[in-house]
Design goal:
Blueprint: H1 4-10, E1 16-20, E2 27-28, E3 31-32, H2 36-50, E4 54-58, H3 75-85, E5 89-92, E6 102-105, H4 119-130, E7 135-138, E8 160-162, H5 164-177, E9 184-188, H6 197-203, E10 209-212, H7 217-223, H8 238-251, E11 254-256, E12 260-264, E13 273-277, E14 286-290, H9 292-302, E15 307-311, H10 324-335, E16 339-342, H11 345-353, E17 363-364, H12 368-375, H13 381-384
Parallel strand pairs: 1-4, 1-7, 4-6, 5-6, 7-8, 9-10, 9-15, 10-11, 15-16, 16-17
Antiparallel strand pairs: 2-3, 12-13, 12-14
């Protein structure tokens, strides 16, 4: 696999370089609420600009339905990227004609061919992108699990290189699968069990402990026979979860569930709530965070870990009253001497939203979905194509 360093050593002054970045940031109107992915994209772009390349950046935002939609314009991202680079970044349709400049293509998903299942349609868009550049740098780890035109197909049209961000992410994931130091503890949270079926199944053969919190924990608790009130529950996953519980016991994997939760009267930031045991959740309440005893339990289970992967908040961290569980897990990782990986998505957003030091973790991934698919044992098309 050729790298950005290989490209720079070849010389890029005056050359047109297409960079696939992951700039899919959360927006409140036109205000970026978490610019972590934009900041992560800066080193590769800055290196190319500093070497005199004419940089064209392709990226997406949200899920527009294959047509222009002002709600998903990359204009706010262009402005923030320009601030971080210390130069103007314009949205255009082609590479700028001056060395050391940066042009950001408008949301690549405005073109339906980007995400088409038809190989020929994606290839046609890839050829159009390739005509604008002399080389391709893949630096959007958050999309490498997608077989899309600007991620996969364009690499087949141009000399291709892995950017620093993609290289760093892949190296970290290999440490989670090939160079493990034990005990290996995985913390999973978030809303739905169904989002993590594959990764749970694969990890049960690899981890020493699996801690489960967040909304998905209530399906596990129900599978154990507990009533969960109005908490988030996926009835259709109960048999699958019972299977996980049985397999964990058979393999000797310690599967740890909450023992208490904050049970609220409704889903709201100011909802009245109380701490209850997980075997006594009132029928008219819903769990919105793990409770204080569970926070101590989880912290204790992380204390002797040598490797930790965390994906998914422990509660509704966006509401201050229900952010304590997520904070407790994050703080336990900051204190840990383990190799700690925050698996992107809401977990990474939570770290920043709660004001925790990013350098307190060994690695904060920019790609939650890509990280999970790798840990499921799936091939990442956007990485595989770079090896050709």
């Amino acid at each position: 696999m050729k790298t950005l360093e290989d490209l720079l050593s070849e010389g890029v002054s005056g050359r047109r370089v297409l960079v696939r970045a992951d700039l899919n940031v959360p927006l409140d109107g036109d205000r970026i609420t978490d610019d972590g992915r934009v900041r992560a994209s800066v080193p590769t772009i800055k290196a190319l600009v500093g070497a005199g390349a004419r940089v064209l950046v392709a990226a997406h935002l949200g899920r527009p339905k294959g047509e222009p939609d002002p709600r998903f314009s990359l204009a706010p991202v262009a402005a923030r990227l320009g601030e971080l680079l210390g130069q103007d970044v314009v949205i255009g349709t082609g590479t700028a004609d001056a060395d050391g400049t940066v042009v950001l293509l408008e949301n690549i998903r405005f073109d339906p061919r980007e995400t088409s299942k038809d190989d020929a349609e994606r290839a046609a868009l890839a050829r159009e992108l390739a005509a604008k550049a002399d080389a391709f740098v893949s630096d959007g780890f958050g999309v490498v699990h997608r077989k899309q035109a600007s991620v996969y197909d364009v690499a087949r049209e141009l000399p291709h290189y892995a950017g620093g961000l993609v290289l760093a992410e892949v190296e970290v994931l290999h440490q989670l699968t090939e160079d493990l130091k034990r005990p290996y503890v995985v913390v999973l949270g978030g809303a739905k069990v169904s989002d993590k079926l594959g990764v749970i199944k694969n990890l049960l053969g690899k981890v020493d402990r699996l801690l489960v919190g967040g909304g998905m924990a209530y399906t596990f608790l129900k599978a154990q026979g507990h009533e969960v009130g109005r908490s988030l529950l996926q009835e259709d996953q109960l048999d699958q979860v019972r299977g996980f519980l049985a397999e964990a016991e058979e393999r000797g994997v310690e599967l740890v569930l909450p023992v208490d939760v904050l049970a609220a009267t409704g889903f709201a930031a100011d909802a009245p709530h109380e701490v209850v045991r997980t075997d006594a959740i009132p029928a008219d309440r819903e769990g919105l965070d793990i409770g204080p005893e569970t926070r101590e339990l989880f912290a204790g289970k992380l204390a002797d870990a040598r490797t930790v992967f965390w994906n998914g908040p422990m509660g509704v961290f966006e509401f201050e009253a229900f952010s304590g569980g997520t904070r407790a897990v994050a703080e336990a990782l900051v204190k840990s001497d383990a190799f700690t990986v925050v698996g992107g998505g809401d977990s990474a957003a939570a770290v920043r939203a709660l004001g925790l030091p990013e350098d307190g973790f060994s690695h904060i991934s920019t790609g939650g979905g890509a990280s999970l698919e790798f840990l499921e044992g799936k091939e990442l098309p956007g990485v595989k194509v770079l090896e050709d």
